[in-house]
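User: Sequence recovery, please. Input:
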């Protein structure tokens, strides 16, 4: 897959498409054609290559097919080929991207969608995202606390016991789906915003035995743009850390 990512990134038109989705996620083919001086068929070919490389994901919204940037592979390329050659960099808590199909009500587009394939069973992924001892190893040292019932609260606490994020359990279907309201408390800007929503979808990969496809969607953040910007940067790191923990037993970042 790494070779496919490098091949996809080599073309300037495809990099432009990624830039367009970075600026405004969830665009249709018609919307993406407007800034590019090429045919509709040409744009479709480039989008197909990006999707095959895992750099974008798609979903249906009524009659339209929407395209979403999946920044996880780029984060993995950075971790593999850039970070070890760069000077050490400090990670701040910022925060997780294709929902292939959700319930029909599609009047509001989901926005940030991250997706990653992990060589682990869905049950292992579920334990990792709900066990405080495990979340502390990939979610910026934060331990999650909840009784995991619909309507119950949850919070993420750092090692000093300070709550970094909180919310309630909206929907839960172990080990396949978890929907949370989300309020981030790490800065005054995010703490003053209304809650947004995070959805975890955990499904066996359709073609690869022993591999689980993990999709994380952040939406309903019209009144929480500081939170949205923070999660847009941080969720790929969280997902990469989750994959590293489950596949190698190691942590992605220093503890």
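Assistant: Recovered sequence (255 residues):
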């Amino acid at each position: 897959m790494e070779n496919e990512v490098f091949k996809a990134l080599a073309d300037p038109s495809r990099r432009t498409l990624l830039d367009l989705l970075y600026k405004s996620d969830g665009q249709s083919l018609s919307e993406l054609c407007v800034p590019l001086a090429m045919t509709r068929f040409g744009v479709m070919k480039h989008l197909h290559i990006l999707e095959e490389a895992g750099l974008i994901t798609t979903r249906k919204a009524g009659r339209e097919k929407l395209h979403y940037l999946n920044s996880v592979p780029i984060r993995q390329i950075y971790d593999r080929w850039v970070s070890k050659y760069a000077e050490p960099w400090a990670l701040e808590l910022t925060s997780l991207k294709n929902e292939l199909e959700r319930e029909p009500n599609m009047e509001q587009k989901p926005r940030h969608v991250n997706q990653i394939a992990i060589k682990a069973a869905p049950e292992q992924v579920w334990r990792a995202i709900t066990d405080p001892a495990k979340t502390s190893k990939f979610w910026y040292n934060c331990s999650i606390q909840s009784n995991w019932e619909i309507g119950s609260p949850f919070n993420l606490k750092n090692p000093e016991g300070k709550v970094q994020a909180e919310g309630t359990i909206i929907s839960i279907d172990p080990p396949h789906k978890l929907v949370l309201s989300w309020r981030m408390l790490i800065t005054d800007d995010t703490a003053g915003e209304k809650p947004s929503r995070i959805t975890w979808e955990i499904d066996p990969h359709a073609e690869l035995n022993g591999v689980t496809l993990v999709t994380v969607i952040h939406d309903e953040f019209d009144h929480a743009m500081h939170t949205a910007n923070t999660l847009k940067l941080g969720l790929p790191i969280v997902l990469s850390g989750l994959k590293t923990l489950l596949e190698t037993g190691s942590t992605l970042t220093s503890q």
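Residues 33 and 42 are 9 Å apart (CA to CA).
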